[in-house]
Amino acid sequence: MGTIGITCLLIILVNVIVSFKGFRDEAFFNRYAFDVDGIILYKQYDRLISSGFLHANKMHLFFNMLALFFFSTSLDYVLSNAAFLAVFFMSLVGGSLLSLFLHRHHGDYTAIGASGAVSGIIFAAIALEPGIHVGLLFLPFRVPGWLFGICYVLYSIYGIRSQRDNIGHDAHLGGAMVGMVTALFFQPLAMVYNYSTILLILVPGIFFIYMVIRHPHLLLVDNLYFKRHHKGDLTIDDKYNSARVIREQEIDGLLEKIHKNGLRSLTKKERKTLEDNSKL
């Protein structure tokens, strides 16, 4: 096992430790998960990275770490240890930033998982290893990397547009594109010997991201996300969780105000809000 393999195992170890801490400690989980309001309103930018080390459950953690390990081994002889770390963290942040942009008006949107970073590692391997084949779970055959990459990008684009499931397609796509570009920065010769695969994957992915940034209305479709967030369709749990999150964020803001400016800076209404909350 090369240095990248050892580094990968260390990343997996950190993921396991942080994820299990999140499984047991809800406050820890909520503080470090990807949360739009937490990032935009409270400037908790560490969430862009920390969310990549939290997972929903053991199965989510297992499959992400399994994919990370297998694809990392194929990069052992084509990237330096520093380059591998750059691909991992750039992909993680890239996926988080795309999610933040697409959900910037959905204050209650949250996400967790290393999928953006793992996608970046997978697509770095596809870019730098022309003959790579990808094995799919429960299928007795492997598909060429270029075919997997194209299907993955198209499926991610469809998933972002339709939002028919709870998968973070935006983080996957953002991580994949950033991971591939970062890998090419360290190994630009790959554009010469693997240009067709790289262009077939990068062009539709980057074009879609560009169109979404320039024309955000492209995402305004009648999808599951908007249906679930329409007030008339909220379940009792949705309403309770939404109210709880709003209340907690309001209290956090008041406590931060006290910390910076003192108790006297609060208005009568704000003091009453604190008093009412202390009785809950």
Structure, explained:
The chain contains 14 helices and four strands. It is mainly alpha-helical. The protein has two domains: 3-221, Rhomboid-like (Rhomboid-like fold); 234-278, no CATH class. The strands form two sheets. It has a two-stranded antiparallel sheet with strand order 1-2. Strands 3-4 form a two-stranded antiparallel sheet. Strand 3 and strand 4 (142-144) form a beta hairpin. Helix 1 (3-24) packs across helix 2. The longest helix has 26 residues, at 236-261. The chain is elongated, with a radius of gyration of 21 Å. The termini are far apart. Keywords: Hydrolase, Membrane, Protease, Transmembrane, Transmembrane helix. It is a multi-pass membrane protein. Residues 235-279 form the DUF6576 domain.
Structure at a glance:
By secondary structure, the protein is mainly alpha-helical.
Number of DSSP-assigned strands: 4
Q: Largest sheet at a glance?
A: 2 strands, antiparallel
The helix content, as a percent range, equals: 55-70%
Distance between the termini: 55 Å
CATH superfamily of the largest domain: Rhomboid-like
Q: What is the name of the CATH topology of the largest domain?
A: Rhomboid-like fold
3D shape: elongated
The total tally of domains equals 2
Query: Strand arrangement, largest sheet?
Result: 1-2
Tally of alpha and pi helices: 14
Keywords: Hydrolase, Membrane, Protease, Transmembrane, Transmembrane helix
Membrane topology: Multi-pass membrane protein
Family: Belongs to the peptidase S54 family.
InterPro entries: DUF6576 (IPR046483), Peptidase_S54_rhomboid_dom (IPR022764), Rhomboid-like_sf (IPR035952), Rhomboid_protease_S54 (IPR050925)
